[in-house]
Amino acid sequence: MTKHPILVTGGTGKSGSRVVSQLRAQGASVRVASRSGEPQFDWLDRATWDFALEGVKAVYLVPIDGELLTRPFIERAVHLGVERVVLLSGRGVDVPGYSGEANIAGATHVDGESAVRDSGITWTILRPAWFAQNFSEGIFLGAILAGELRLPAGDGAASFIDAEDIAAVAVAALAEDGHGGQTYELSGPRALTIAEAIAEISQATGRDLRYVPLSPEEFVAELTGQGWPSAEAEDYAEAVSPIRRGMDSYISDGVQRALGRQPRDFSDYVKASVGAWRD
Known about the structure:
Helices cover 39% and strands 15% of the residues. It contains eleven helices and ten strands.
């Protein structure tokens, strides 16, 4: 392990926190970038960037959706001596029509990938499918705890990826040679519909859970009725639309390529996370 600290942006998030844990388990020096960290890091305050990057040679970079800040951050990082970056991007960046005009993350990822490729340093790009942890730590959790997940996903399927696997690939790319110039498409070993995923959680917890498919218009109307800004509700609906349109069911080989093993199955994730869904 390098004696220089590895900077992890998004270090308290679903993938970043796991990158931090796995790096520390290997004995690495890790600097967690967050607004409450020391030194403080705020994507929207460029005055904080240099302090976070001081003495760093490798960065796990989780961009901020809706902002084109990856490029100037990478440029600053290279200027300050960073030699390696692992970028968390998104699925479908290179698929025409995957992200609609309403999806704010699309432009962030497109420009971010271009920025790291243009950087002149060693880079690795991760393109994960939907995080399995969205059910236990993220945007679906509240609905599941209430017993009903309502989404405009139709009967489409997604090959959910465990965030532990995303982190494991990131750590390998940060700490080992042989991953430079690689774009790893990451998914689980099988695709599930939302109804199938909910059924597995229901069986594991013994709770009566159900999935209710909505049209995009119904979904947006429900969210705005709950006080969501229209733009945010429409963006959420657009983010889910690749599942409904059958664009998220394919299986990717990135975990196998990077780690030499199969990714964790959704059932393994459910067993490990069952406590999140119990009162």
